[in-house]
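Lecture notes, unit on protein representations.

Consider one protein chain, 183 amino acids long.
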Amino acid sequence: MNLAMRLALPLIACGLWAQPVALHLDTAHSTVEYTLGAILHSVHGTFQLKRGALTFDPATGKASGELVADAASGSSGNSGRDRKMHESVLESDRYPEIVFRPDRVEGKVNPAGHSQVQVHGVFVLHGSEHELMVPVSVDAANGGYTAAATFTIPYIQWGMKNPSTLFLRVSDKVEVTVHAVAR
């Protein structure tokens, strides 16, 4: 073995020469769920993911790509409440997509096993961009990844309408949980 190879082996073993990882979201096996707290009860619902791709460099943490949810797919199981959500709060006809564009991963994503990282990026909701840091739990095996992330969106602070009424008061924040499967 030549000198260059002997010097390179420890670097390779430490992962310092790791190649960027490109992942494509499996939308059929990924979910977006939300919970909106209210005085009498919490509202639970879902959104459908339309598409998603992510590339990240394990050596530098630099990331790119996007995860896109269909805003019009938001459903709580109550047609009147959903109509108000789409017409008055999300304005789904005008803003049909909810997008997260990651730009960096803080922490190490293990090629196998469990990892806990923070993903920083821009969250696009209701036509406005907002910086967001999301804690993500990642499990990797056989070239595939599953990830779970829960974060809070201060939708009122971000300029969206408050759906509260005289008799029903809801939180000014919504909790979002994403379960993603990617290869």
